[in-house]
Predict the 3D structure of the following.
Amino acid sequence: MEMEDKKERSFLSVVIWIIPLLLLSVFVLMILFTPDFQNGAYKVKSWFTGPMVSDEAIPGRVERLTIRSQRNINLIESKLEMLKPVKPYIVVNTTANRFSLRNIDGDTIRTGTCSTGKNEILIAGNKRIVFKTPTGLFAVQNKQEDRPWIKPDWAFIEDGLPIPSARSASRIEMGSLGDYAMGIGNGYMIHGTLYQRFLGLPVTHGCVRLGDKDLDVVYHTLSKGSKVFIY
Amino acid sequence: MKNKLTFWFITSVLIIIVGYSLTSIVILPVLTKNILPKASVRILEDKAKSDKKEKNNVVSESSDSSVSKSSKDEAMKLFELRRREVFLHSQLELANEDSMYLVLDLANNVAFLEMKGIQLHECHILKADISNSIKMYHTESLLNWMAEPFTVKHIDATIPKIVFIEKIAPKDTIEANKASAEPVATRLGDVFIVMDFDRNLRLVISQSEKPDDEGQKIISAMRAKYSQAEIKKSVQALIKLNREPAMPQISIVMPKTDATIFYKALPVKLKMIIKM
């Protein structure tokens, strides 16, 4: 009899201790899922309230606000329209090494592969020369056919050659920029390439290289002042 | 006897804690009004005075949130117009700046990289998950929250923004010829991006493709880091008896290439606008 009583007591004490354990686990779970709990709470609230629109009545106010809002929208839309390019423009994606030539309505005229900066730092003594295509908004500043490449100092450093004087004839190289070149500022250009097989890869020193056919279309579509978006 | 006392003591303490947590986490958000942080609306500098006046009128009148009960449809129409107006206003503000920005069109499941109002890159969002704390507020408080572009406070990602390869200049042409190698396409790492914006918004971008083993490890570690931070924040808020404002989160899934393009192209001081 006593044994049975003892057994019952120990069973009860186990059951009793389950309660705080359960409470503790509920608490831990709540902490672990707090953001979800809060989200759940908002959901519960929306069951009661539904989509909330204030309902204090002031006659005629909705109509007046609607007219004002519509007028504001028209005004902003016209301002946004004014920001749009007035000439065809080009968009260059440096991550995918692709370009997209578009007309003033934003419709794509031509897309294709290109080559952009190789993201390399050339260390020459104290100098650190960065080969990267700049990103942002640029404009075509000049256009030239069969433009010779005036090799900058880094071209000689990279080839392990001594740097010639600024006016040395050895700086002039013909044909390496392709048939056409368009300057976009700070010495960066959109031009052709002798290395067509590298199109689609990041290999340049910062310029944007296009294939011959693409370059022909781009050159004859863009004019001086055309926008160049690089991202 | 002692055992019984201990039991009741522990049970009462736990009941208080659980009761408090329930009230704080579940009941209060249900009963009380939302606490979505408001945007401080700035008027564009280049706006004409008349425009300013008009805008101010609109903002002040609309913030009264007083609409006719009898015409819920009209009110909803007004809300849609106001939502569009707020979006366009933010878009114009960003288009006037010289930086790229992100546009999340959750209504059409598209993300854009824009500059000067021009869509530079477009990507289809394969899956979008929006917190209920955003979804339920179809009202002025949501408009106030979205009234200004969101500015990023912190970005964390599993891929680097840009990788530079350092190369020491060759001494002569022989060394230069030795060093020159055929270029290869860069390998794309697995992408998981967490962006914390002002007004408590968090944007999480994940790739749709299954990550490789190494990528999975990095992504899991990052997820764990953020969930631990969440738990810590929740515990601290509970201890300090402090109800945090709503922390809305938008999680989107897009192809790995697009996620990489977005991440690499976005400026450090990124601004974002949302359409929903």
